[in-house]
């Protein structure tokens, strides 16, 4: 370990010297930093022990952030229509962004308590460099990264005191950086930041909404958006009138980037102000509706999307009684945009999907008459999103083993614009299904066709979890409908859904996702009732349940072995313990599936009972059984007793009854409680 440690110190020192003493290209410099940081992430204790090395890395980061043009050109001050910072390839912005992201990763890897004193000292030194604005700019942008890691909002007071005066600085890049810093920290520390610092930060930011430089105006609006989004109602109302007046003026007469951020600012105010926004609602709607219907050129797609967001957010805040008179026009405008104006890679997609979700929550059953007009183009758009996201992921690779597929999923878990759009689309569908219930039933077949291929979507955890959650909701939707042959179709759907879910479980590696999939299986059983044959339970469900439990136990054992390694970091131990807790939760979810089967299929589940007893309950009765294993065994026994009764488990009842009596007087309450509960069930049944 000493040899490895010394080698890593030497490597970082070589990188440091190369970075400072050679006139390397930007790409090579970035490689040097990335290479040094790669070692930090692998062995975080290295820089915790050697703070000089940490300072060297931070120096390299700051030097990279200083590599920006000293001149402020018109394109920065007044970006062209349709400009998007996310797509900005300007080297100045890339250098600063690289530095900020690197500092963020360093704080996360090293520890805030170690990083902040060093970072603060270096920031103070840079702020004292009066001859060059770029030093102060880099310092302010670096400070914006610390809020995420600070728990005590009082610790931010010195930063707020340092940053706020720069809102009035003569240099526009420093006013911009101050807006960025306060906005980012306000976002990271909401609502405590707002409660303590709104009175100090918000008034000068509101004044910057009329700055002479459009880029600064835009960023002042963006900072206010972040701050207002996290503000309790009472901390927004004092600034509403002035901020809205300026925002509406910007929307009417400014460039697109300013209009976009002014629109977001209005959204944030309306969302936080809630019913207090009612007096501004009728003033807002004509202005916003004009933007929605007239700004139809390609460069205004982002603006139209944010207008949809603003209209639906403020309408949700004030309630259906105020939105009702605008509902028809808004819905028709959204349908027209959705039908005619959406391209393959289009920011409008996510805004439309989220907008429909809010309107559904706002209108409830009142949206049903519009559904036949909304759904065709909506499903067409959703199909395109899912097709695009599937190009990112691998849905089915039968040639891979379970372990190989799990490893592939773990490596490829990604978030792209396509997968993010797919998540938004899924949440939108979930809301429609849950809110409309039986009134959504005419779209069930289309929805099933859309969702089932996504159950085993390999490259995004959230998509797999959300799809699993939607399937029981579809069954409930059908159950509440007026459609014929429910007693035939619901079991058919439940059988099909659970087969797909069990297949997904068998190739899943993430315990949190497995829990969601298992919960869906359980709910489908509860909804469909007694729909499985003896053969299906014995040869399929029983096999899957035992397999899932054994795989979970195997993962826990591997985690325990990893904890014994000498060089395991504290953070790694926390992750392992968290993973083990997820496995415990997973095993409890499996017992709930067993309970659902016992409750609905009674005597058909006796083979499952026998195998559970032999594989798990017997082990929980042994003298050296862990607390978790005893508790897990009791959970299974509780489900058996509650739903099958003593008569159906006569052969194993003597052993189980003795275990229950013993556990009822156990020293730990977490074991006594399920034991006593199960004994009470026996008494009730008698």
Q: What share of the residues does DSSP label as strand, in percent?
A: under 5%
Give the structural class: mainly alpha
Helix content, binned percent: over 70%
N- and C-termini, Cα separation:
65 Å
Number of strands: 0
Helix run count: 31
Biggest sheet, open or closed, and with what strands and sense? none
What's the average pLDDT? 86
The outline comes out as globular
Show unreliable segments. 1-5, 393-398
Question: Radius of gyration, rounded?
Answer: 29 Å
What is shown here, in short?
The chain is mostly helical and 686 residues long.
What does this structure look like?
The protein has 686 residues and is an all-alpha fold. Helices cover 75% and strands 0% of the residues. The longest helix has 32 residues. It is globular and about 85 Å long. The N terminus is likely disordered.
Helix/strand layout:
Blueprint: H1 2-21, H2 26-42, H3 45-49, H4 51-65, H5 74-77, H6 91-110, H7 112-127, H8 133-143, H9 157-163, H10 172-188, H11 192-208, H12 214-229, H13 237-252, H14 256-273, H15 278-294, H16 301-318, H17 320-340, H18 348-363, H19 371-392, H20 402-412, H21 417-436, H22 444-451, H23 461-480, H24 486-506, H25 511-528, H26 534-563, H27 570-601, H28 606-620, H29 627-644, H30 653-663, H31 669-685
Helix pairs in contact: 1-2, 1-4, 2-4, 2-6, 4-6, 6-7, 7-8, 8-10, 10-11, 10-12, 11-12, 12-14, 13-14, 14-16, 15-16, 15-17, 16-17, 16-18, 17-19, 18-21, 19-21, 21-23, 22-23, 23-24, 23-25, 24-25, 25-27, 26-27, 26-28, 27-29, 28-29, 29-31, 30-31
């Amino acid at each position: 370990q000493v040899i490895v440690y010394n080698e890593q110190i030497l490597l970082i020192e070589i990188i440091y010297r190369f970075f400072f003493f050679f006139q390397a290209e930007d790409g090579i410099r970035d490689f040097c930093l990335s290479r040094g940081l790669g070692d930090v992430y692998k062995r975080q204790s290295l820089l915790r022990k050697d703070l000089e090395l940490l300072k060297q890395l931070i120096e390299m980061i700051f030097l990279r952030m200083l590599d920006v043009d000293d001149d402020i050109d018109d394109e920065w001050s007044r970006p062209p229509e349709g400009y998007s910072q996310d797509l900005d390839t300007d080297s100045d912005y890339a250098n600063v962004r690289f530095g900020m992201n690197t500092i963020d990763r360093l704080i996360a890897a090293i520890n805030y308590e170690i990083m902040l004193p060093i970072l603060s000292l270096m920031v103070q030194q840079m702020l004292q460099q009066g001859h060059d604005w770029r030093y102060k700019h880099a310092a302010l942008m670096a400070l914006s990264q610390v809020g995420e890691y600070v728990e005590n909002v009082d610790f931010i007071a010195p930063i707020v005191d340092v940053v706020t005066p720069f809102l009035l600085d003569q240099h526009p890049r420093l006013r911009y950086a101050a807006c960025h810093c306060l906005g980012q920290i306000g976002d990271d520390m909401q609502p405590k930041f707002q409660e303590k610092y709104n009175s100090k930060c918000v008034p000068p930011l509101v004044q910057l909404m009329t700055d002479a430089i459009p880029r600064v105006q835009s960023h002042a609006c963006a900072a206010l958006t972040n701050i207002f989004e996290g503000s309790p109602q009472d901390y927004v109302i004092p600034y509403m009138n002035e901020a809205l007046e300026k925002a509406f003026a910007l929307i009417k007469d400014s460039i697109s980037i300013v209009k976009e951020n002014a629109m977001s600012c209005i959204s944030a105010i309306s969302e936080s102000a809630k019913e207090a926004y009612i007096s501004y609602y009728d003033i807002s709607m004509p202005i916003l509706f004009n933007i929605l219907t007239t700004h139809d050129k390609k460069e205004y797609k982002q603006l139209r999307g944010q207008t949809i967001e603003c209209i639906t957010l403020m309408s949700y805040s004030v309630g259906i009684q105020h939105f009702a008179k605008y509902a028809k026009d808004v819905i028709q405008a959204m349908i027209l945009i959705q039908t005619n104006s959406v391209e393959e890679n289009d920011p409008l997609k996510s805004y439309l999907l989220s907008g429909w979700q809010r309107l559904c929550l706002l209108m409830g059953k009142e949206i049903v008459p519009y559904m036949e007009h909304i759904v065709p183009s909506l499903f067409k758009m959703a199909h395109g999103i899912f097709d695009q996201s599937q190009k990112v992921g691998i849905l089915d690779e039968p040639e891979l083993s379970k372990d190989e597929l799990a490893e592939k999923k773990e490596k490829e878990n990604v978030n792209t614009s396509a997968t993010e759009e797919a998540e938004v689309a899924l949440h939108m569908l979930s809301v429609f299904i849950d809110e409309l219930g039986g009134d959504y039933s005419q779209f069930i077949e289309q929805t099933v066709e859309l969702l089932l291929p996504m159950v085993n979507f390999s490259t995004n955890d959230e998509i797999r979890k959300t799809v699993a959650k939607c399937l029981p909701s579809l069954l409930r939707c059908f159950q509440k409908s007026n459609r014929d042959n429910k007693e035939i179709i619901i079991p058919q759907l439940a059988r099909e859904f659970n087969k797909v879910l069990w297949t997904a479980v068998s190739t899943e590696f993430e315990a949190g996702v497995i829990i969601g999939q298992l919960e869906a299986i359980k709910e489908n059983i509860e909804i469909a009732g007694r729909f499985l044959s003896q053969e299906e339970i014995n040869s399929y469900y029983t096999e899957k349940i035992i397999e899932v439990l054994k795989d979970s136990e195997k993962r826990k054992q591997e985690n325990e072995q990893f904890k014994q390694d000498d060089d395991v970091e504290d953070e790694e131990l926390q992750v392992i313990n968290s993973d083990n807790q997820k496995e415990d939760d997973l095993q409890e979810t499996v017992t709930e599936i067993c309970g659902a089967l016992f409750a609905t299929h009674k005597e058909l589940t006796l083979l499952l009972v026998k195998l559970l007893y032999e594989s798990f309950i017997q082990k929980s009765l042994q003298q050296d059984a862990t607390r978790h294993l005893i508790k897990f065994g009791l959970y299974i026994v509780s489900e058996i007793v509650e739903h099958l009764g003593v008569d159906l488990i006569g052969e194993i009842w003597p052993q189980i009854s003795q275990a229950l009596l013993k556990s009822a007087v156990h020293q730990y309450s977490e074991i006594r409680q399920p034991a006593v509960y199960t004994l009470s069930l026996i008494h009730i049944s008698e």
